[in-house]
């Protein structure tokens, strides 16, 4: 009788807990949505003010080659080019290394490969960006200066530092994709007489290619938004680089260098917000590409 009397009480308690959980998660999600839309609205209004209020031409901003805020020259093309070049080069350097590391951990020696490499990859992901920049400044830049023409600062130094920073992102995504591959695919390949390398090159890599490309795009998104490390080694010159060993600048580096030297509401400050809006727009494009690749991977 006692158990029968307690059952309705427990049922009401569980229903109350369920409703509390639902309300709590709904409030958190709504709060998150409000924060995201507020950030986008704030950056958009500040960034658009450059063209709508200050009268700066959008074509001059996107394609102008001259940067001199004190002389009303707001061409951001050198910074846009610097961001794209360093991100692409970083992805080109990091992708083969990441794919080889993933294959080592999942296909070559899965028994002890993960135990050896995974902690190293996790350590790379946890190192602060300022440490990467400091190592690049004291080791990489002098090496490039002594080996190649130029002062060591430039696109090559920035790309190498960024490639090491995005290595964990691409490796983790590629490892997860290789680890989730159905075992019967490889067994069927082996059953047809294929060797391990023929199976990896002809079956494994083509199957997981969309997922690997997702990791590459995510890595590029991180490289595109990285500021401090690349700012310390790229040289921060407002010119479109014509060589890997020439100084250049990126959108993030010019924002961090100049934001504290401008007054809120001035055209010099609004132009920096326009660069931030451009970075936000590029982030949306990266997310859109990742979604497309994920849909392709499911197929």
Note down, in words, how this protein is organized:
- The longest helix has 51 residues, at 2-52.
- The model has no long low-confidence stretch (mean pLDDT 88).
- The protein is globular.
- It has a two-stranded antiparallel sheet.
- The chain is mainly α.
- The chain has 11 helices and 2 strands.
- Helix 10 (251-258) runs antiparallel to helix 11 (267-298).
- The protein has helices at residues 2-52, 58-63, 77-108, 110-126, 129-147, 155-179, 183-191, 196-225, 228-233, 251-258, 267-298, and strands at residues 67-68, 73-74.
- A hairpin with a 4-residue loop joins strand 1 and strand 2.
Question: Could you give a quick summary of the protein structure above?
Answer:
The chain has 299 residues and is mostly helical. Helix content is 79%, strand content 1%. Strand 1 and strand 2 (73-74) form a beta hairpin.
From the N-terminal CA to the C-terminal CA, the straight-line distance is: 56 Å
- Count of helical regions: 11
- Strand content is under 5%
Number of strands: 2
pLDDT averaged over residues: 88
Q: Major sheet: size, sense and barrel closure?
A: 2 strands, antiparallel
Shape descriptor reads globular
Helix/strand class: mainly alpha
Strand order of the largest sheet: 1-2
Flag low-confidence runs: none
Radius of gyration: 25 Å
Q: Which percent bin holds the helix content?
A: over 70%
Order of helices and strands: HHEEHHHHHHHHH
